[in-house]
Known about the structure:
Ferritin
Amino acid sequence: MAKVSKNLPKKSDQAVRIDIGISEKDRxxxxxxxxKLLADSYTLYLTTHNFHWNVTGPLFNTLHQMFMTQYxxxxxxxxxxxxxxxxxxxYAPGSYxxxxxxxxxxxxxxxxxxxxMIHTLVLGNEAVAKTARAALKRGEAANDAPxxxxxxxxxxxxxxxxxxxxxxxx
Length: 170
């Protein structure tokens, strides 16, 4: 009969303890910050997609395409953020109520004109960048390199999106 290492869990154990070099307390703190980022990101995704569907005016084609590029990128990022939360041993939020409770941004109640859409998306991207920056500090403090990498990429994208959108308002 093969020997079983003392470090391996027994078959009767409910779950395998996470031991990735980050304490449970730090993993919980990072996951909480990432959950706020996920909520803000989902809210921004939903707003951007809504504007893609409903934009009108002389810049219709330009904005329709730009919004589609941005919401598609944002949609793909949602999965990456949620999966990082799961890798840290926590459940990712996934309901509108959870997102409303965690998000720092809200969705507009009415369909604004194109200029207001652009302005709203500038503010939304900046808000997501601020949320990512707060999470980045928590990830750095926990020496969580994968989270830091993810957040650095998210910051780059949202700061660039805000700049591009802001340029349309000049």
